[in-house]
Amino acid sequence: MSATxxxxxxxxxxxxxxxxxxxxxxxxxxxxxxxxxxEAGVNHxxxxxxxxxxxxxxxxxxEERFNRLGIFDETAATDGEAMLETSIRAVxxxxxxxxxMTFAALEGQDMILNSIPSPYIATTLKQLEKxxxxxxxYNGVEASVLLASGxxxxxxxxxxxxTLMSMAHAKDRNFEExxxxxxxxxxxxxxxx
Length: 193
Hints:
mainly alpha, Arc Repressor Mutant, subunit A, 2 domains, 71% helix, 0% strand
């Protein structure tokens, strides 16, 4: 068992980590302040002392997860298609983040998501706009629409893949084979025209 958090910063971080764990498992609505405090190993009154309310903690959880993504490393991908794919994969590989985003959307927490700056998304968007101006990537829609649609495709794939593939009578397909096909579809969609 880990030591009880002491001091303002340790308590705040313990509550944020508890929020990341519980909210990504059960959603924000079904997790109580007492659940969070128990997971963090602190008294529930400390959540109110340090965050004011549960909604502020939820915002801090998302800020923490978005900050962990850092900024988009433009050296990681040399062309526009690879850059967008790299960006989308970074979010999709962070299961806690995409689960948090899914629960937030399902529970109507869009305003919280809209109020949190994501350095990673901001730098990705800036690079997309630059690549569109240089005709390196599809520019038939705004860069923000391109990025959002890429995340929508990936989030949908992560959350609903098994169900939708079963409905399409392809439930026994190898995941890697399907991923290659989805990647090909996305590359064809964003190739410069």
